[in-house]
Amino acid sequence: MYRFQSLAILASIVGLFALVAYSLFGWTGVVLIVAGSLIFNLFSLSGSARMILSFHRARPISEWEMPELHHISKALAARANISTPSLAIYPSDMPNAFALGVGNGVVALSSGLLRLLDRREVAGVLAHEFAHLKNRDSLLNLSAGLFVQAISFLSTLFGILIFLLFISGAWLSIGTNLIPLILLISLAPYGAIFLHATLMRTRELLADRDAVMLTGDPGGLGNALIKLEQANRYLSRLQRRFRFIYTSDANTGSRWLRTHPPTEERVRALCELSDRTRPFPSAPVLPAGRSIGPRRIVIT
Question: In angstroms, rounded to a whole number, what is the distance separating the alpha carbons of residues 53 and 293?
């Protein structure tokens, strides 16, 4: 279901872009802009991944440093039938994780996440990120985002043209013929942003479902989501008290423009899966009880 929804939403984004480009430049413009977007897409993925890792100051996690984490990673990668991705850690009290689909893939975990979650919950989070890699969500997100940006660029360009026509007086000779086109170009960016956010929420639900297929343990990911929600909410409130300029929380605003579904919705979907899912016989033993962290090195 989620895969069909994703395909339909992505087709809608591309169709909206094609409609805007055709309205302004005809079919020749559509072909040229789509070809340019695809070429830019191919060359920008690896560069953007390096920039994101550098921005977060992420570093690789060696196997001797966190052997349990690498053991879980290899077991999940084998079950997902993908190459084992690289693992990275970055300094942040905000518990979070993300996956980048470059080469065999990179999964970056914050130091706060590794302190907060136990082994079972970390396995659920890793499985979720591995599902993103298997489903090529980094490439999908980048591709959809490029079309959204292209629509926004065309809308801005058209707005500047209309403004110049207005101040030059040429608007009077055109009359009302451009009103439908103006409405289309003005509303298209908002529609593209809405579709892009809907696509990302759909991929998150798909990654949750596929993660459960990998671990056979909906409770591990469900508990992790609840902990992450509570910790992020607490840290957001705590950090806001020390800001001189108020910054709104990430969860405020319209839920239709968020890239992640509400935690309650995700946990409810996982609970529905728990009645139909059983752990695989070859599942790694992941008892709860302590967090996964780097080994301490004592220098004497």
Answer: 20
Spatial separation of the C-alpha atoms in residues 15 and 12, rounded to whole Å: 5
Residue type for position 45: L
The answer to whether residue 85 scores a pLDDT higher than 60 is yes
Report whether 110 contacts 104 (CB < 8 A): no
Query: CA Rg, the chain, in Å?
Result: 23
Q: Which residues are catalytic?
A: 129
Lowest mean pLDDT among 21-30, 75-84, 240-249: 240-249
Amino acid letter for position 32: L
What are the phi and psi torsion angles at 299 (to 5°)?
-100, 120
* pLDDT at residue 41 greater than cutoff 80: no
CA angle, residues 105, 52, 222, in degrees to nearest 5: 65
**In this structure, what token pair is assigned to residue 199?**
């696509």
Do 107 and 126 contact (CB within 8 A), yes or no? yes
